[in-house]
Each structure stands twice: as C-alpha cells, then as structure tokens.
TrEMBL record:
The gene is tyrS. GO terms for biological process: tyrosyl-tRNA aminoacylation. PROSITE patterns: S4. Homodimer. The lineage of its organism: Bacteria, Pseudomonadati, Pseudomonadota, Alphaproteobacteria, Sphingomonadales. GO terms for cellular component: cytosol. This is Tyrosine--tRNA ligase. It comes from Sphingomonas aliaeris. Residues 359-395 form the RNA-binding S4 domain. Keywords: Aminoacyl-tRNA synthetase, ATP-binding, Cytoplasm, Ligase, Nucleotide-binding, Protein biosynthesis, RNA-binding. Its EC number is 6.1.1.1. It is found in: Cytoplasm. One of its GO terms (molecular function) is ATP binding. It catalyses: tRNA(Tyr) + L-tyrosine + ATP = L-tyrosyl-tRNA(Tyr) + AMP + diphosphate + H(+).
Amino acid sequence: MTEHQSPLLRTLADRGYIHQTTDAAALDALAQTQVVPGYIGFDPTAPSLHVGSLVQIMLLRRLQQTGHKPIVLMGGGTGKIGDPSFKDEARKLLGEEGIQSNVASIKRIFERFLTFAPEGETGGPTDAIMLDNAEWLDALEYIPFLRDVGQHFSVNRMLSFDSVKLRLDREQSLSFLEFNYMILQAYDFLELSRRAGCRLQMGGSDQWGNIVNGIELSRRMDGTEVYGITTPLITTADGGKMGKTMSGAVWLHEDQLPHFDYWQFWRNTDDRDVGRFLRLFTDLPLDEIARLESLEGAGINEAKKILANEATAMCRGCAAADEAAETARRTFEEGSVGGSLPTFVVSAPIAVIDALIGLGFAKSKGEARRLIQGGGARVGGEKVTDEAMTITVGADSVAIAAGKKNHGLLVAG
C-alpha cells in the first residue's frame, strides 16, 4: 500500500497504474480538496481501439470512480499528423472523412466504461465529457501560433526526448509534420486547462515528454499548475506486447472481434499475469484479487475465467460474457461446439490451409502448413495429416481447431 492520502492516487498506485508522476505530493493534495478534471488523448487511426488502449480507458474509469472528472480527447486534429512516439515510420495519413468516421465509431467504446451526462444535459461535476481537438487546432493560424506558442519550445530539448531520439539514432526519417506533434499535444493541455479546468494529463510511459511539455507551456503562458501521470508499458509475462496475438490486434468493438475471441484472449492469460490483469482491468476488490492470484493448479484456471468474465462484461456487456463463457464450457469441457465461436463463411469447397487463414489461426500458407505438420490442426475433431485436404461445408457447420485454444466454424454462405 502507499503513502498517498487521496483516493485517486491511492487507487492508481495500489492497482499498478503509476509509472511516473509530476509533483505527486501537490497532485495528491489537490485531489483531496477538489474535483480534478483529467484527460487522455486518443488518435482515431482505426474504427476501434484495441486492448493496448485499455489501460488508458481504465485510468479514466478510475478517475471517475474516485470522484473526479474524465475528459476523453479525440484527436480529430492531431490524428491528421500522427504521434511519432517510438514509431519506426510515419503513420499513413487519413483524410477528413476517415477521421470523422473513426471518431464516431470509437465514441461508442467509452460509453461502456464511463458515465456521461444524458444527451442535451449539462451533467454533474464528475460526468465524463468528450472533446475533439480539431475544434481548436483546425482554427489555428500558423504565424500567430509560432509566435505565441512556438517561442516556448527549445528544439535542442525536443531532440533529446526518447521518442524523437530513437528515430534519429536509427537514421529513420522524422518528418517536420510529425515533429510538430509534441507542440500540438502540449497546446491541447493548455486549451483544456482554459476550456474545461483540466488539471491532469495521463498517458502511457511513451507520452512522458509530451506531457511535461504541456505542463511547462501551461505554466509559462497562463501561470497554471497542472500535473501528469504515466502508466508503465504493459507487457505479458513472456515479454510480449499487451493485446497482440497470432491472429492480430484484440479489438474492443464486437464488429471487429467476436465476443468469444475477446473472452478467450483473457482466459488465455499467463498464470503469472492473472493478479496484475485483475487489478488493472476489472473492478474486483483488491482483497478478492489477492485471494484469486494465490490459487494454484486448477484454481488459477478458475481465476482466469473470472478475469475473462469480468473484462468481457465491462467491455461487451454481461450477456456477451455469459454467452462466451458458456461457449467455452461446451467446447472445452463437454467437447461439443459452442454457438459463439468465430466463423468463416464459404460458398464452395475450401482448402484446409485457406480455412485456417480465413479463421485467423494462421497468417500465411507457410504458417498453416507448419501448424498441420506439427499436428496442431483438426477438422471435425480429427487431426489433419494431409496439407492438400479440401473441406466441403453442407447444411451443418464444420468445426476447425488450431492447437488447444483456437476453435472456429466454417459455415456455408
């Protein structure tokens, strides 16, 4: 447990969210005396966020749960540039229509994790709000912005930030457009301070330099004291990146990832990660989490099911969690086929290799062949031994499995 006095910092520390904090004592004192509006920015680079963004979403949830005000900042403006932090190359630039479509789609996610005021109402002091930085960034005039804001940034210092230094050390191109990103993000903090009384910016550890820039800009231009918190980089116990699987990203939207696949991602958590993930990604009390992470053998598998149920219910709803859990029970415990497994629709006989790729169980024909050669592919419960096997789907679906954990269905379309 920690020495923090405010429920906000105590909760964040006890659950493992804090990596770095600017002036923790002052922020702790502020959080005891007033509602602290805090924000996190999300660039709309896709129609859905994925599990890699979930720590930040949960951070906003914890902010609200401890009596403070979450601000979700959509990067309709900065999304036109792309954050270069620790990227090997520039992001593909999206057009205005694509950005706005992604913003509208992503908004649905936050309504599941945060409480917003009813549409058309002002809302209470802790109701979440959603803003778009295009509202102020699109209206900026270049010369006044350079004069009023640009003067507060040292190029020497900007070049020293790890997010920039890494690209330059690798002799990878960093465009002037991307280089401006950190100035615009700092300006976002200033604008949110002015518009919404925002006193806190939160983000991943790769955002530390950007957050510090915003704090210094607010102090220099307005004399306002604001604060920053970063979260640790979340990796799995085996060193992998959180949210990355053989089949790709673990999307939060159900139209990009079936409920069962989302549930199964959490069920497949490494034994060593169960307690940490329960603290970060569920609302279970800490004493109950301590009990669950102490279980061994079959008990830790029950803890994983609880993690999967809790995480899925929060993101997809209780009905989705129950459906996925029942599908898993029928598939793995009874040996039958559950109803919410991922499916691949086929209209003609299909090669088993193409079926494995279509279900996301292999990324290439070579990977599918290796899976078959290793004895890991099954069709209708029977091990596949012939790489040239063709599957014909009739009125009944055909069950396909890859290894012990990946199960799917071929259905006629």
